[in-house]
Amino acid sequence: MNIKEQVLKQLEANRGSYLSGKALADSLFYSRNAVWKAVHSLIKDGHKIDAVTNKGHCLLEEDGVLSKASIEKYLTGDASSFQVEVYREVTSTNNMMKRYAEEWRPEGVVIVADSQTMGKGRSKRSFYSPSDTGIYFSLLLRPEGSARETLFITTAAAVAVSEGIEKVTGKKTGIKWVNDIIYKGRKTAGILTEASVDVETGGLSYAVLGIGINVSDPKGGFPPEIQDIAGSLFGSETCAGAVRSRLVGEIISVFMGYYKNLSKKEYMETYRNRSVVIGKQVEAYSGNDCRIVRVLSIDDNGVLIAETEDHEEIRMNSGEIRIRQIQEGQ
Ligand code: BTN
Fold first, then answer.
1. Cα–Cα distance for residue pair 79/247, rounded to 1 Å
2. Each residue's pLDDT tens digit, 72-101
3. Ligand 1 pocket check for 134: Cβ under 6 Å
């Protein structure tokens, strides 16, 4: 850790309180001048730090800059050993993490970005990832089970995102099969799991779990092609303070709780309870085929069970659905 990171870690641990330059310098074994320079460099990076003579330095509650220190503070349980890397802008956190995976980095790294220039969504779509208003992060996992685990990772992650959001913001979101997070009828977060199968064992050599959340509305609004379907948690309200960092930390912590016993599928009950599609009429797309079906349930393997207008039961492992009537409030 360089001096800037060490100073920020101390200020983050005491967010809202003043730490004297002397106390910082003594505890970190640097000169007061070196600490002062580090604080000024952090302010130049955009951090909201109050520096008062005879009082010291204080990381203000409203500081919203994503940092390793602000995220690590909220990692608990199995997630507390995660290595966190934070970037202002990347092409895609998933692409970057796939390179790490090919370089044999071990499980337990998370890349967090403030913006992405080539954010990826499912089915080769893009994921709009502007700066300051969203969070985009990817986890590197090396699960022990078969390739089927990929679907379990996605379903567990959907529950973790929905629960993490509720824990941090109090807002209740719904899950649209397979992995869209819906708030007030609009897609507010998405999940993309990309995996590589080991041809010799048939197991997974790695999985990259990517999560993107629209925390507030982008400054110029959403682009026209998604403005009817996309939404955010806070809308036009600015979301100040550590909310984005807390969301990342809490979501990873909840997810890791499920991940250690992934095959027990403890998350499936909550997944069904938070589903916005069960009991609904939807358009079900599979390849070029589209059918109007009513969703009956989602089984423990994440398979969608539905019935056609002719009362024929169908089961979908993958594909896409579009809701015809959206539940009020979610
Ligand atoms: C979808 O809803 O289609 C999935 C969206 C997944 C977006 C996230 S943002 C972080 C990670 N990096 C990417 O390029 N995509 C995922």
1. 13
2. 999 999 999 999 999 999 999 999 999 999
3. no
